[in-house]
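In keeping with the milestone schedule agreed at the kick-off meeting, the structural modelling team has produced records for the first pair of proteins. Each record is given below as a sequence line and a structure-token line. The laboratory manager (R.T.) confirmed that both were archived under the project's standard naming scheme.
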Amino acid sequence: MPRPFAPNNDHCAVPAGWRECIANTWPGILPTIDGMFSARFGRPVIVTRHAAQRMAERQVSDDLLLRLIDEGGQRWRDAHRLWVWLDVPGRSDNLVCAVLVLEDAVIVKTVMHRWELMP
């Protein structure tokens, strides 16, 4: 069984056709933001349906999400998973944080607010 979020080459190639591939391979993942690309990681950005819902609830725009991914602080869980966070001036619910999985694309699993960096 292939690892979650890692397209099996029998199904498709990434990045060519990545939107259709991911939508067909993992129905729970929805590439919601056309053309979003992370300069920091050099990969397209895919937002899960869950993360898109949390973005709406927490008033995190597409621009803020990309800024968070490309400019935010980083804490790595392992070689493929990390948290990125950013203190956004004017927000009372800081820190804003995203949970990412790095595969052939940057996959945003969820977006949080009032996040605290623990030692």
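The second protein of the pair:
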Amino acid sequence: MKTIPEIRERLGQIALVLVEGGVGDEEQKAFASELFEMFEGLKRRSPCRVARRSNKRMRPEDHQKIRDLAAAYPDSSYQELSAMSGYNTGRISEALAGKRQEA
């Protein structure tokens, strides 16, 4: 099986040939077959194990608690806010940036 950089390089070569034109039906079929093989080679494997959810759901009041904490300690890092609030740094980031819908 080819590596991702090798596949990327080959995709570039095929794209260049197709953009320049002048390929016959047989060459197009060969390219299509090769592209399909590369496509199949890039599938993800199934995870060997999946961990159960370890963090609790965020509620609107939790988002507000984090925003209040950040306002009270404006010089604190996400890591420090995480330690103070009990939520991981990703949740801190989401709450402060407003990226996740409040449930």
